[in-house]
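Minutes, project check-in
Item: structure for the 172-residue chain
Input as provided by the requester:
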Amino acid sequence: MFSFNDYTSQQLKNWEKSKRILIYKNEEMYLEFIAFSLGNSEYKKKLYFGTISKEHANEILLNTGVDVEGFNCALSADEVRKINSSHGDEKKENVRGQRAYTVEDYLVIPFVILSADVVERSTKDYRNKPALLFHKQIGDESFTVVTGISNKHLDVFVQTSWITKKETLPRR
């Protein structure tokens, strides 16, 4: 399993007064971010977990051909709402062989990115940029986190995520 690089004191100082960027501190703060995101469509913040380490970036590059070393791993409030609206309804998800996303499942997103069993480049780009799929088997469920790449903001940002009720990892 990999870990995110922490931000430098200068980076933290630069973002200290940001109206948009939050820096991950702990699980409690992350859950508050999720709650605010789900409860208010006007909430437009973006949470940074840290940057992609050299070792993790090398693994991603090897599997996808995409270099994201030093990029921020980000989750925006808009994407939290998108995941909820696309994958938060139990009836709809059951038809797909998936289960509905819960608040607690958002906590798994950084874990999936850091410890994916399989990382692959999507066959579809996101806004003309590469999209990456991180797959992780946890118990009898497969978690998939789809990220877009922003060269402008140096972000690997969560675009969506879903949970399949059985093992569905791509075979290598």
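Outcome recorded: The chain has one domain: 4-10+19-164.
No further action items on this chain.
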